[in-house]
Amino acid sequence: AELYVNDAFGTAHRAHASTAGVADYLPAVSGFLIQKELEIIGGALANPKRPLVAILGGSKVSSKIGVINNLLEIADTIIIGGGMAYTFFLAKGYKTVGTSLKEEDWVERAAEMLKKAEEKGVKILLPIDNRVADHFGEDAVPEVVASDAIPDDREGMDIGPKTEELYAEAVKGAKTVFWNGPMGVFEFDNFAHGTQAVAEAVAELKDNGGTSIIGGGDSVAAVNKFDLADKMSWISTGGGASMELVEGKALPGVEALLDA
Fold first, then answer.
1. Gap between the terminal Cα atoms of the chain
2. pLDDT of residue 260
3. What is the four-CA torsion angle of 145, 178, 53, 42, rounded to 10 degrees?
4. What is the pLDDT of residues 106-128, one digit of tens each?
């Protein structure tokens, strides 16, 4: 071979033979997709149109702590949803989160993030109400309860209606939105409402002169489920890669290229 072109953004965060190894032996350049991903996501972080609102969902604080840490340096508002919200509830001193997903050993770190946000003047929005259920399943019946009043035998599965309004309002005022991770168990129709409400709020940005960036993974699945893909400014092809970019990490597959 004479030339190597890498256009697989979705694996650019892995130092594999096919992403970084081959670049040691050939002149290596980026394809158009990687170029666009780096320009759009990198540009939005380096020089965002403000206010910049980041929406982070998903199950674990531990997998998003680096992202939150970096976003505290650049975002105006960080919206938290999904399973990781319950670890933040404990960090806020709420007595119980019932049987909801929680990471006890990350409560202290979550508390540090809340404190850091306060010091930096970054707003962190947490759910004020939740849809809970007595078991995890598609047939589970949602009940709405306040975030500080989740019964011991109930599991949080989605954000509640008041939180949907709060989050939609925060998104409405944004000029740039980066979204990664659902607000609840959107695979179950009974608990897809929160993710759909946020997706619909984000979908209005583009027409109002704002930029919406969907950071790969489950968020893309959610946007597709609600038929809103064409309303988004940019849908990233890499979940892990886009998150590492937002975290401020160097991507091995990009670093290996000539004009990194």
1. 21
2. 56
3. 150
4. 999 999 999 999 999 999 999 99
